[in-house]
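User:
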Amino acid sequence: MLEFLRRHELAVFLHLVVVISFVFTFGVANGVIPMSLFSYGRFLLLGIAVFVIVFTFRGIEGVLYVVRPMLVWKRPIGWYAFALLLCPLFALVFLAGYGIVTGRGLGLIELNLNVATRFDVLIRLAFGSLVGELVWISYCLRKMAGRSTPYIAGLVIGFYWALWWYPAVLTQIGVLPGLNIGSLLIAQTAVALTCSFLYARTESGFLVFIMQVIFQITLLVLPVAPTTGGPTTFLLFSIAYFLFATALFLVYGPKPLFASPGRAAAAARAETI
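Assistant: Predicted structure:
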């Protein structure tokens, strides 16, 4: 049995964390678990789960496997600009275009720094983004390398990432009010694709961590979230971001987007990082 679980380590982990998320979130929603534990508790459980899995199957080397990409930070300054500016610039362009189409011009572009500048909010965002990078990119995405292309890996990880968030959306605990599962799935898949693209090019978990933090801050500062721009705006933004992420792969690679495991491995080896 242990050997079977070891061979299917990633599948075991993905389904385990979804189950844990459902149990924990509904425990909070029904008063079994204190609400005060939710903000950090869900991420702590996610992080603990990945380290328990890798340590059980691969010992300390498994733990180092997950942590190592976060230590990769010496990359060209252009990639730091990419991680810092991609999402806010895209959101600004989206809002400008959406405003022109709907006849509101640039009036949609309004900055709200009230929440994003709070220290406690920034700490929560940084902690959640750190755990997210370690789990979904450093572990899950890399485990899929060689089995699929980075694009397919991003799609799969985005699906499970959204599924992990699903209980919070159902109970409307710890998520942006008005967020629905459809928009969540598209937005989270788009985030996973951009993370996959950046990691495929840099192999730096640190850069991916930065980009995740900036994405969360962008949702708080610019009116593209359901709470500030409305559910329709967020849905359209999510679709546009997903299409943009796909375009990054189409134009810059790694290509092909869809391939058998053998061809995916060959393509990955042929790419210059």
